[in-house]
Design brief:
By secondary structure, this protein is an all-alpha fold. The protein has a single domain, classed as Up-down Bundle (Amino acid/polyamine transporter I). The protein is built from 18 helices and 4 strands. The strands form 2 sheets. It has a two-stranded antiparallel sheet. Helix 1 crosses helix 8, helix 8 runs parallel beside helix 12 and helix 16 runs antiparallel to helix 17. It is globular.
Amino acid sequence: MSHNVTDTVSPSPGNDAVRAADRVSAEGYQQTLSRRHVTMIAMGGAIGVGLFMGAGGRLASTGPALIFSYVIAGAIAYLLMRALGELIMYRQTSGSFVSYAGELFGKKGAYLSGWMYFINWAMTGIAELIAIGLYFTYFFPGVPVEISAVCALVLLVAVNLLSVKAFGEFEFWAACLKVGAIVIFLVVGTIMVVMNAQVGQSHAAVSNLFLGGSMFPKGGLVMILALNAVIFAYNAIELVGITAGEMKNPEREVPKAIRAVVLRIVVFYVGSVSLLAMLMPSNQYKSGESPFVTVFATMGLDWVGSVMNFVVITAALSSCNSGLYSIGRIFRTMANNGHAPAWLTKMSSRHVPYAAILSIAGVYLVGVLANIWLGGSHAFDLALNTASIGVIFTWGSIFACQIMLRRKKGKVSSLPMPGAPWTSWIGLVALMVITVLIGFDTMSNPDGSQYLLGLWTLGTVPVLALVLWFGWQFVKKNEPKNALFT
């Protein structure tokens, strides 16, 4: 059996080739995405609230040492993408790591990978939508967070239901906007540091990295503890694996996309956080506000802060848009394998898994409304941390699949993981350490008391495990015996 996805539409005798818009994979998806789409989809999905909003609170609690957190997480992300690249070049599928887990670890592997990825994007999407609502209060203070979030959700669902081409174009231009904004920020920020520009009561300078005599004013452990949130910031780079099933010429374009995504995201993240730490003392940033907006507002340039706030809203929209796309495809794969309700397999005439997309949109809606009960700040932080559990499991499953692929098949990919299997084991161990350290993570309440965010997050793990166990008892009775894990 061939490992490559074949097309169900062949060229007619009178045509030299099938138009790209007419190419449909064996899974029923249109293969219309180009490398520019895939690169920007992965970058757009990753560059979201983790950087544009989460970095502010983490700079305040960690200090300039947060830079090293991003470097370490970037190294793990590089290993992850190389492991995923080997899997993709072995076999392209929109089921991505869920499909690989099913083939290499069996039915339980596919079940766990699929539902943990669902938890990842369910919580990520909720966090993104809450962030959008919070950002809108900058322009419209009287509009409730939930109203803005629901309006954003309706827009994104509409884009996803149109076609994969419409999704790809929306994501490409939205990602271009925020990537362009980051590039401009890197240039302007560097000039400000070189010129020792005044920012509020302080000056932009490299010396801001060493206020208190060290880049670790709160100790090295805090830097390690921040890895949980930073890993979340890199979330969505694995989208390259899912988009491969709807990509033109994946064998040629995927390796290029993987290299471009990792390099650019690490440069943008590490560069942005480094400049933020140099522009202002890190203790002047605060949770719940974009650090980019904080910098320009402190300088009295409210109009620049307004522009950045618009970019931040676009960033969150783009990231959430990617989440709807990815979990829609994964959900349909799970349904095909009997691990989710059968009606989630339904496709529209435009080859869009509309049932799966509408289902995850319903979950997002419930999460946004729960924000009223939980309160914006803690709801966002808890959603972000819970999403991190899903991210860690997803990344861990990709490393595990790469190890098992080599063990069972040998070197069968044209893009082998360098240093395998040891590099994949390094990635797995790093993720395990980060998981344990989540329990020590805390956030400050407005009154100065500590909120045990990490313990609350780890407290969800046994609950999730119990729910997944009961779910497995049910689905294994209804799972088709000939599931192909496509």
